Amino acid sequence: MHPSSARLLNILVPVKRAVDYAVKIRVNPQQTGIDLNVKHSMNPFDEIAVEEAVRIRERLSKGSEPVTITALTIGPAKSIETLRTALAMGADSAVHVEIPESAPAPEPLGVAKAIKAVIEKQKEKEGVDMVILGKQAIDDDLGQTGQMLASLLGWGQATFASKVELDLDAKNATVTREIDGGLEQVRVKFPMVITTDLRLNEPRYASLPNIMKAKKKPVTKLTPTDLGVSLEPQMEVIKVVEPPKRVGGSKVESVDELVEKLKTAGFTAV
Amino acid sequence: MLFKRFLSSVTRTDVQHFTKILSPPSVLSTLQNAPSAELDIYNNDWMGKYKGSSTTVLKPKTTQQVSEIVKWCNERRIGIVPQGGNTGLVGGSVPVNDEVVISLQNMNSVRSFDPVSGILVADAGCVLQALTDHIASHDHIMPLDLGAKGSCQIGGNVSTNAGGLRLLRYGSLHGSVLGIEAVLPDGTILDQLSTLRKDNTGYDLKQLFIGAEGTLGIVTAVSILTPPAPEASNNVILALPHFNNVLPLYMEVKRQLSEILSAFEYMDRTAYDLAVKHGQGRALADDEIEGAECFVLVETSGGKREHDEEKLETLLSTLLSASNPLITTGVMAQSPAQFSSMWALREGITEAVSKEGKAYKYDISIPLSKFKECVDATREQLRSKGLLGDGDGMVKAVIGYGHVGDGNLHLNVIATRYTQEIQDALEPFVYEFTASHRGSISAEHGIGLMKTHALQYSKSDVSITWMKKIKALFDPNGIMNPGKVLE
Ligand SMILES: Cc1cc2nc3c(=O)[nH]c(=O)nc-3n(C[C@H](O)[C@H](O)[C@H](O)COP(=O)(O)OP(=O)(O)OC[C@H]3O[C@@H](n4cnc5c(N)ncnc54)[C@H](O)[C@@H]3O)c2cc1C
């Protein structure tokens, strides 16, 4: 690890392994969930978070590597692939909080508590100044982890970030947030939590030399027990159903027919 | 001049007859009040290079309707242009004069799919992407894939014997097409819609329609063998310092990946830069690819992800750790989104070229080792004629890309506009270069209108004579796609 005296900034990036967004989702026959035996990849918002951390380091450090980036995931054994991707994109080290393959998916509060516990563990060596994570995961769309984490830690937060500028001397960040109907700029002191929006950046490809290097970067394995947190869900999924099938459009032969059809469908002129 | 027969123009009476065969919205004719602008998309080719002046476009829905139209046209000696998605790149899909256009777009139903054998039977007008989606739910893929998949039709693919991005793995349509239904130039329906993999009962007539470019009849349905979708696919883009490394790299990649290698695509630096410029897929980091002279996209498809990844990673680490590395760097897709984005860089070149300017497209088969020489020689040829540079009527770029695995180079010359001078500088220059290496002047796009005069560079007199005999046998009146393939 890096000597704490030389460091400028330590960034923690929690990432989630999720069903890839290009995959066609199929509900299982029991209607208790979806078919998970499909291609997974890093949650796109988390990819943006890793990219932002790497860009912050590229902006700040000129060779001396004063910024450290730690990727963190909570998930089954296969989640190591997601960590390797983060490492190939530029994270320095990773933490894997492993849960059994059969375990239910952890919920935001459990995840936030686990992240907090990891941060406290890291404090023994060197503290975390900033957590950057996706504003939501595309599988459960819960979108609460960042906010819960900030509350648990008592840190400031800048959610839905589309631009991040740091002032290291003043130890704060100016973050542009995407809000309804416009943009908002906020300044938040370190340590802080940032959640990423789509427009923040466009993540890079992992280059082959970096993929090879990533294999040699350190990954610390922990269990929820090591962290003293419970990831038992507090919510019960009752039923998962597919959206109703779209009915195809049809062609009409004339304007009159169109008007007639609109009328029967209940559309009227305003 | 065997086929420059006198052909008749479509008259109002003909159009009236067509409306008896087809429902009114399926007949589009300026002789019947359709504004000629509405026919533009049928009269102009994809590149904006060839322009016909057809008055009438017919869109039949059934094979029977096609048959009745063709029968009438044959009796009346009206020329016919069969048209699919109109994405052809050699001017074959638009009229030369005022032939009637028969568009297959309304014949777009899947007739059957057998998930056990993987045999798909579909109307000729089915769009390649729609078929891909249709069989994806049965975990199968089409044996061919190309940049135009969102518009081109299976009938057009078969008629041009399209190659594309998967040929290396799944072979040509001469192997995967099992049967064809076609309407012959006299209106007879030829039903060869076999779903048999083996059928040695005499002459295999359907083969004649594969690559006939609509000159022997209209393909109305196709039966095609589709492979199961690979469980795992991966891709990498590799940056090479010199073109000379492409061949040794290809050999190494083939040796190490063997059965999981499914594509090996080449693009030179100029082609890559154009694709990036026109927003086709996300670019690699600039500083990493500084000095790269060309790129290769390698795709793997296989049955087991762990197995494939291990092979790919072993290959990549040998490549990177070699004392005299063949590649400078590369990127590997980490997600399906990146997988598509990387393919978009390669597949998007055709589109980028059309956004950049007017393209002279040469699609040739030559020995792999001659790819760069061909591009360089062409550029030199244009330079020596003073045609290379900025400004109106000049050539902006000469690029090379293509299917290395199939020995197929796409040589594209991009100008601000089409001019006779550029044309004369390129032809017969390119064809002579190709012939001198015993290559083919059309590897996959066909002859169409563009290359009829150049056929002799790749076909002997004997071959051409017999092609003409076959044409005369099927189409004695010369009504089917006149002026195409044979002069
Ligand atoms: C972006 C782009 C990428 C491409 N990439 C490739 C590639 O990688 N490999 C490749 O081989 N080609 C490629 N092509 C060209 C390729 O030939 C066509 O895209 C495709 O195969 C033609 O299908 P289509 O339905 O558009 O046919 P059209 O363009 O409509 O017609 C092509 C020819 O076939 C005839 N025809 C069409 N339908 C029928 C029918 N039902 N019966 C009889 N004759 C018919 C036409 O008369 C014409 O001569 C590309 C084109 C584009 C625009």
Supply the key terms.
heterodimer; A: 270 residues; alpha/beta; Rossmann fold; two-stranded antiparallel sheet; 7 helices; disordered N terminus; B: alpha+beta; Uridine Diphospho-n-acetylenolpyruvylglucosamine Reductase, domain 2; Uridine Diphospho-n-acetylenolpyruvylglucosamine Reductase, domain 3; 4 domains; 7-stranded antiparallel sheet; 16 strands; binds flavin-adenine dinucleotide
Topology:
The complex is a heterodimer of chains A (270) and B (487).
Chain A: E1 9-14, E2 17-19, E3 40-42, H1 44-60, E4 67-75, H2 80-89, E5 93-98, H3 108-123, E6 130-134, H4 145-153, E7 156-167, E8 172-179, E9 182-189, E10 192-196, E11 206-207, H5 208-214, E12 219-222, H6 224-227, H7 255-264
Chain B: H1 12-21, E1 27-29, H2 40-43, E2 56-58, H3 63-76, E3 80-83, E4 100-103, E5 110-114, E6 119-123, H4 128-136, H5 154-160, H6 167-170, H7 173-176, E7 177-183, E8 189-192, H8 206-209, E9 218-225, E10 232-240, H9 246-257, E11 261-268, H10 269-277, E12 294-302, H11 305-321, E13 329-332, H12 336-347, H13 349-356, E14 358-365, H14 371-384, E15 395-403, E16 408-415, H15 420-426, H16 429-436, H17 461-474
Helix pairs in contact in B: 9-11, 10-13
The complex binds flavin-adenine dinucleotide (FAD).
Flavin-adenine dinucleotide binds at residues 46, 81-89, 92-93, 104, 124, 146-148, 152-153, 155-157, 159-160, 162-164, 213-214, 218-219, 350-351, 444-445, 448, 481, 484 of chain B.
Q: Tell me what portion of residues of chain B adopts beta-strand conformation.
A: 15-25%
Give the strand line-up of the largest sheet of chain A. Answer: 9-8-7-10-6-1-4-5-12
Indicate how many domains the architecture of chain A comprises.
1
Largest sheet of chain B: 7 strands, antiparallel
Shape of chain B: globular
CATH class membership of chain A: Alpha Beta
Computed structural class of chain B: alpha+beta
What small molecules does this complex bind? flavin-adenine dinucleotide
What low-confidence regions of chain A span 5 or more consecutive residues with pLDDT below 50? 1-5
Average pLDDT reading of chain A:
91
User: Any idea of the CATH topology of the largest domain in chain B?
Assistant: Alpha-Beta Plaits
What is the radius of gyration of chain B? 23 Å
Strand count, sense and barrel status of the largest sheet of chain A are: 9 strands, mixed
What Rg of chain A is obtained from the alpha carbons, in whole angstroms? Answer: 22 Å
- Category by helix and strand content of chain A: alpha/beta
CATH-defined fold name of chain A = Rossmann fold
